Structures are given as structure tokens and as C-alpha cells.
Amino acid sequence: MDPQVLSAAGALLTAGLGFMAGRRIRSGRVSTTDADRLWAEAARLRADMGDQIAALRIQLVQKDERIEQLERTNRRQGERIDELERELASMKGNA
Q1: What is the mean pLDDT of residues 49-57?
Q2: Which of 52, 26, 58 is nearest to 66 (CA)?
Q3: Distance in angstroms (rounded) separating the CA atoms of residues 16 and 45
């Protein structure tokens, strides 16, 4: 074969391989077994964290409701204490 033809074919092959390698790197996706495993594990962890966050949000709403209930009870008891203290003071004043 003619050396110039071989040289041109080699240049084309090199350029083609360089293009394919560059395209693979720029795609942002590496398709190796380790990478695939890590992507799957990361997806599982994100799903687990999402489930935990949802459960914690439910607990937070329940805790907020409980706090409001306890604050209402506390206010009622404080009002009752004030009422009883006034009653006691009036009894002492009449004695």
C-alpha cells in the first residue's frame, strides 16, 4: 500500500477515536460497573433520605399540634390558678 494512503487512513482513524472519546467524556456519563453501582447506591440513598424527610415532616406537624394543645391547657390552668388565688385572697380578707 501507498504510505500516503496509510498515513491518511491513520489520521482519520485517530481523529475518529479522538472524537468518540471526547464525546464520551463530555456526556457526563461513565458506564463502568463501579460507576453504575455507585449511581444505583446514590439513587437508593436519595430515595431513603426522601422517605425519612417525609416521615420527619409528619412528626413535626404532629409535634406542633401537640405543642399547641399543651399551650392551650397551660393557659387554662394558669387562668384557673389565678381564679383560685383570687378566691383564696378574698377568703383571707373576710376572715
Answers
A1: 95
A2: 58
A3: 39
